[in-house]
Write a structure and sequence with these properties.
This protein has 76 residues and is of the alpha+beta class. The protein has a single domain (3-75), classed as Fe-S cluster assembly (FSCA) (GMP Synthetase, Chain A, domain 3), CATH 3.30.300. It is built from three helices and three strands. Strands 1-2-3 form a three-stranded mixed sheet. The longest helix has 18 residues, at 3-20.
């Protein structure tokens, strides 16, 4: 399974929580060389002042916990 597919599986676990707040998240890219995952936040999450905390404290933490080679998750 590719790193992209592994990240998508983690996002599938997280997505219901984000959707319950009126938002959504999409995987844009995974740079395996740098360990950077790029995502896009949609809906309520796109403009929410807490979106950075959600991204770093929730999404990034869960992805890094399951896929240690990922170093950072950024919103684009």
């Amino acid at each position: 399974m590719s790193t992209y597919e592994r990240v998508e599986k983690v996002l599938e676990k997280i997505r219901p929580y984000i959707q319950s707040d009126g938002g959504d998240i999409s995987l844009v890219s995974v740079d395996e060389a740098s360990g950077v995952v790029k995502v896009t936040l949609h809906g309520a999450c796109g403009s929410c002042p807490s979106s950075t905390a959600t991204l770093k404290g929730g999404v990034e933490r869960m992805i890094r916990q399951e896929i240690p080679e990922i170093k950072e998750v950024v919103s684009v």
